[in-house]
Write a structure and sequence with these properties.
The protein is α/β, with parallel strands linked by helices. It has one domain: Rossmann fold, CATH 3.40.50. The protein is built from eight helices and nine strands. The strands form two sheets. A seven-stranded mixed beta sheet has the order 5-2-1-6-7-9-8, sandwiched between helices.
Protein backbone atom coordinates (compact mmCIF):
# COMPACT_ATOMS: atom_id res chain seq x y z
CA UNK A 1 0.00 0.00 0.00
CA UNK A 2 2.84 2.42 0.85
CA UNK A 3 4.41 1.87 -2.57
CA UNK A 4 1.07 2.60 -4.25
CA UNK A 5 0.71 5.85 -2.30
CA UNK A 6 4.23 6.98 -3.15
CA UNK A 7 3.67 6.24 -6.85
CA UNK A 8 0.44 8.23 -6.71
CA UNK A 9 2.17 11.22 -5.10
CA UNK A 10 5.04 11.01 -7.58
CA UNK A 11 2.56 11.63 -10.41
CA UNK A 12 0.98 14.71 -8.82
CA UNK A 13 1.28 18.36 -9.74
CA UNK A 14 0.29 20.05 -6.49
CA UNK A 15 -0.77 23.69 -6.35
CA UNK A 16 -1.24 25.29 -2.93
CA UNK A 17 -3.24 28.53 -3.04
CA UNK A 18 -2.68 30.60 0.09
CA UNK A 19 -4.18 33.98 1.04
CA UNK A 20 -0.96 35.20 2.69
CA UNK A 21 2.67 34.16 3.08
CA UNK A 22 2.83 31.57 5.91
CA UNK A 23 -0.67 30.13 5.25
CA UNK A 24 0.77 27.79 2.63
CA UNK A 25 3.14 26.13 5.10
CA UNK A 26 0.72 26.10 8.03
CA UNK A 27 -1.91 24.35 5.95
CA UNK A 28 0.01 22.09 3.61
CA UNK A 29 3.73 22.16 4.44
CA UNK A 30 3.77 18.46 5.23
CA UNK A 31 1.91 17.50 2.07
CA UNK A 32 4.27 19.63 -0.02
CA UNK A 33 7.32 17.98 1.55
CA UNK A 34 5.86 14.53 1.04
CA UNK A 35 4.94 15.12 -2.62
CA UNK A 36 8.44 16.45 -3.33
CA UNK A 37 10.04 13.50 -1.54
CA UNK A 38 7.99 11.12 -3.70
CA UNK A 39 9.12 12.88 -6.90
CA UNK A 40 6.06 15.00 -7.68
CA UNK A 41 5.84 18.70 -8.56
CA UNK A 42 4.82 21.41 -6.09
CA UNK A 43 3.78 25.00 -6.79
CA UNK A 44 2.66 27.72 -4.38
CA UNK A 45 0.48 30.71 -5.20
CA UNK A 46 0.29 33.36 -2.47
CA UNK A 47 -2.48 35.82 -3.25
CA UNK A 48 -1.50 38.86 -1.17
CA UNK A 49 1.26 40.52 0.81
CA UNK A 50 1.60 44.11 1.90
CA UNK A 51 2.98 46.45 4.52
CA UNK A 52 1.08 45.79 7.73
CA UNK A 53 1.15 47.05 11.28
CA UNK A 54 0.61 44.25 13.80
CA UNK A 55 -1.57 45.35 16.68
CA UNK A 56 0.14 43.32 19.38
CA UNK A 57 2.51 44.37 22.12
CA UNK A 58 5.24 45.21 19.61
CA UNK A 59 3.05 47.34 17.30
CA UNK A 60 5.71 46.82 14.68
CA UNK A 61 5.17 47.35 10.97
CA UNK A 62 6.12 44.43 8.74
CA UNK A 63 7.10 45.33 5.19
CA UNK A 64 5.93 43.35 2.17
CA UNK A 65 9.60 42.86 1.24
CA UNK A 66 10.09 41.04 4.54
CA UNK A 67 7.12 38.79 3.84
CA UNK A 68 8.48 38.05 0.35
CA UNK A 69 11.94 37.17 1.68
CA UNK A 70 10.50 34.96 4.40
CA UNK A 71 8.34 33.15 1.86
CA UNK A 72 11.37 32.55 -0.36
CA UNK A 73 13.23 30.93 2.54
CA UNK A 74 10.27 28.73 3.41
CA UNK A 75 9.87 27.63 -0.19
CA UNK A 76 13.56 26.81 -0.39
CA UNK A 77 13.23 24.67 2.72
CA UNK A 78 10.27 22.79 1.22
CA UNK A 79 12.07 22.50 -2.15
CA UNK A 80 9.04 23.65 -4.13
CA UNK A 81 9.38 23.87 -7.90
CA UNK A 82 8.08 27.43 -8.16
CA UNK A 83 6.09 30.04 -6.25
CA UNK A 84 4.61 33.47 -6.82
CA UNK A 85 2.86 36.33 -5.05
CA UNK A 86 -0.07 37.62 -7.08
CA UNK A 87 -0.70 40.95 -5.35
CA UNK A 88 2.03 42.85 -3.49
CA UNK A 89 -0.36 45.66 -2.70
CA UNK A 90 -0.80 47.19 0.74
CA UNK A 91 -4.19 48.65 -0.25
CA UNK A 92 -5.59 45.18 -0.99
CA UNK A 93 -3.81 43.20 1.72
CA UNK A 94 -6.45 42.10 4.26
CA UNK A 95 -9.03 43.68 1.95
CA UNK A 96 -9.33 41.01 -0.73
CA UNK A 97 -13.10 40.97 -0.27
CA UNK A 98 -13.13 44.41 -1.92
CA UNK A 99 -11.79 42.89 -5.14
CA UNK A 100 -14.55 41.62 -7.45
CA UNK A 101 -14.63 37.84 -7.11
CA UNK A 102 -14.41 37.40 -10.87
CA UNK A 103 -11.13 39.36 -10.92
CA UNK A 104 -9.73 37.13 -8.18
CA UNK A 105 -10.89 34.00 -10.02
CA UNK A 106 -9.12 35.21 -13.16
CA UNK A 107 -5.87 35.68 -11.24
CA UNK A 108 -6.01 32.12 -9.93
CA UNK A 109 -7.31 30.53 -13.09
CA UNK A 110 -5.75 32.48 -15.96
CA UNK A 111 -3.59 35.53 -15.20
CA UNK A 112 -1.14 34.38 -12.56
CA UNK A 113 2.20 32.96 -13.67
CA UNK A 114 1.21 29.71 -11.93
CA UNK A 115 -2.46 29.92 -12.90
CA UNK A 116 -4.34 26.64 -13.08
CA UNK A 117 -4.75 26.83 -16.87
CA UNK A 118 -0.97 27.20 -17.22
CA UNK A 119 0.48 24.61 -14.84
CA UNK A 120 -2.51 22.23 -14.94
CA UNK A 121 -2.37 20.94 -11.35
CA UNK A 122 -3.80 17.52 -10.62
CA UNK A 123 -4.14 18.37 -6.93
CA UNK A 124 -5.04 21.76 -5.44
CA UNK A 125 -5.19 22.97 -1.84
CA UNK A 126 -7.36 25.96 -0.89
CA UNK A 127 -7.76 27.76 2.44
CA UNK A 128 -10.77 26.91 4.56
CA UNK A 129 -13.43 29.62 4.87
CA UNK A 130 -12.98 31.38 8.19
CA UNK A 131 -13.36 34.62 10.12
CA UNK A 132 -10.50 36.09 8.08
CA UNK A 133 -11.99 38.00 5.15
CA UNK A 134 -9.02 37.26 2.87
CA UNK A 135 -9.27 33.52 3.54
CA UNK A 136 -13.00 33.66 2.80
CA UNK A 137 -12.43 35.54 -0.46
CA UNK A 138 -9.67 33.19 -1.65
CA UNK A 139 -11.70 30.10 -0.73
CA UNK A 140 -14.69 31.28 -2.77
CA UNK A 141 -12.58 32.36 -5.74
CA UNK A 142 -10.50 29.19 -5.61
CA UNK A 143 -13.59 27.00 -5.50
CA UNK A 144 -14.91 28.80 -8.58
CA UNK A 145 -11.59 28.29 -10.35
CA UNK A 146 -11.94 24.56 -9.62
CA UNK A 147 -15.49 24.31 -10.98
CA UNK A 148 -16.10 21.15 -13.04
CA UNK A 149 -15.01 21.59 -16.66
CA UNK A 150 -15.63 19.47 -19.69
CA UNK A 151 -12.95 16.87 -20.36
CA UNK A 152 -11.85 18.95 -23.34
CA UNK A 153 -11.07 22.00 -21.21
CA UNK A 154 -7.50 23.05 -20.48
CA UNK A 155 -7.35 22.06 -16.82
CA UNK A 156 -9.24 19.94 -14.34
CA UNK A 157 -8.12 19.27 -10.79
CA UNK A 158 -8.88 15.66 -9.88
CA UNK A 159 -8.25 16.33 -6.20
CA UNK A 160 -9.55 19.50 -4.51
CA UNK A 161 -8.67 19.89 -0.83
CA UNK A 162 -9.39 22.47 1.87
CA UNK A 163 -6.58 22.91 4.41
CA UNK A 164 -6.71 22.80 8.20
CA UNK A 165 -5.24 25.57 10.38
CA UNK A 166 -4.93 26.33 14.13
CA UNK A 167 -7.11 29.46 13.87
CA UNK A 168 -10.09 27.44 12.63
CA UNK A 169 -10.87 26.67 16.27
CA UNK A 170 -12.40 30.18 16.33
CA UNK A 171 -14.84 29.97 13.46
CA UNK A 172 -18.55 29.97 12.67
CA UNK A 173 -18.06 26.84 10.57
CA UNK A 174 -16.82 23.54 12.00
CA UNK A 175 -13.90 21.98 10.10
CA UNK A 176 -14.75 18.34 9.33
CA UNK A 177 -11.68 16.55 7.89
CA UNK A 178 -12.32 13.54 5.70
CA UNK A 179 -8.83 13.13 4.22
CA UNK A 180 -5.59 12.79 6.18
CA UNK A 181 -1.95 12.87 5.12
CA UNK A 182 0.60 11.11 7.32
CA UNK A 183 3.44 13.61 7.77
CA UNK A 184 5.26 11.79 10.57
CA UNK A 185 8.50 11.82 8.57
CA UNK A 186 8.01 15.42 7.43
CA UNK A 187 6.82 17.28 10.52
CA UNK A 188 10.26 18.71 11.29
CA UNK A 189 10.61 19.94 7.71
CA UNK A 190 7.21 21.62 7.96
CA UNK A 191 8.11 23.30 11.26
CA UNK A 192 11.48 24.42 9.90
CA UNK A 193 9.76 25.99 6.90
CA UNK A 194 7.17 27.67 9.11
CA UNK A 195 9.92 29.12 11.29
CA UNK A 196 11.17 31.02 8.23
CA UNK A 197 8.11 33.28 8.57
CA UNK A 198 9.70 35.02 11.54
CA UNK A 199 7.55 38.14 11.36
CA UNK A 200 4.40 36.05 11.75
CA UNK A 201 5.45 33.86 14.67
CA UNK A 202 3.78 34.48 18.01
CA UNK A 203 4.87 33.28 21.47
CA UNK A 204 3.25 30.19 22.98
CA UNK A 205 0.38 29.60 23.66
CA UNK A 206 -0.77 31.89 20.81
CA UNK A 207 -2.52 30.09 17.92
CA UNK A 208 0.05 31.64 15.58
CA UNK A 209 3.01 30.07 17.34
CA UNK A 210 5.19 27.08 16.52
CA UNK A 211 3.73 25.07 19.40
CA UNK A 212 0.19 25.47 18.06
CA UNK A 213 1.18 24.11 14.64
CA UNK A 214 3.09 21.19 16.15
CA UNK A 215 0.25 20.31 18.54
CA UNK A 216 -2.29 20.44 15.71
CA UNK A 217 -0.20 18.04 13.61
CA UNK A 218 0.18 15.69 16.56
CA UNK A 219 -3.54 15.87 17.35
CA UNK A 220 -4.48 15.08 13.75
CA UNK A 221 -1.95 12.26 13.88
CA UNK A 222 -3.65 10.73 16.91
CA UNK A 223 -6.93 10.76 14.98
CA UNK A 224 -5.44 8.23 12.54
CA UNK A 225 -2.95 6.62 14.98
CA UNK A 226 0.27 8.08 13.57
CA UNK A 227 2.83 10.49 15.01
CA UNK A 228 1.74 13.52 12.97
CA UNK A 229 -0.71 14.29 10.18
CA UNK A 230 -2.34 17.05 8.18
CA UNK A 231 -6.12 17.02 7.87
CA UNK A 232 -8.12 18.21 4.89
CA UNK A 233 -11.68 18.45 3.72
CA UNK A 234 -11.88 16.76 0.34
CA UNK A 235 -14.26 18.55 -2.00
CA UNK A 236 -13.51 16.43 -5.06
CA UNK A 237 -11.59 13.22 -5.75
CA UNK A 238 -11.79 11.77 -9.26
CA UNK A 239 -10.16 8.44 -10.10
Amino acid sequence: MQDILEKFLAQQRLLVVAPHADDETAGAGGLMARVKHAGGKVYVMVVSTGDLEHFDNSKSKVKKRTRRDELAEAMKTLKVDDFEILLENSDLHLRLETLPRRDLVNLIERKGRLATEKIKPTMIVLPAPSFNQDHEAVFKAGLTACRPHLATMKSFQNLVLIADAPQLSWNDRVFHPNLYVDISDFLETKLKAYSCHKSQLRPSPHMGGMDALKLLAETRGREISVKAAEAYECYRFVL
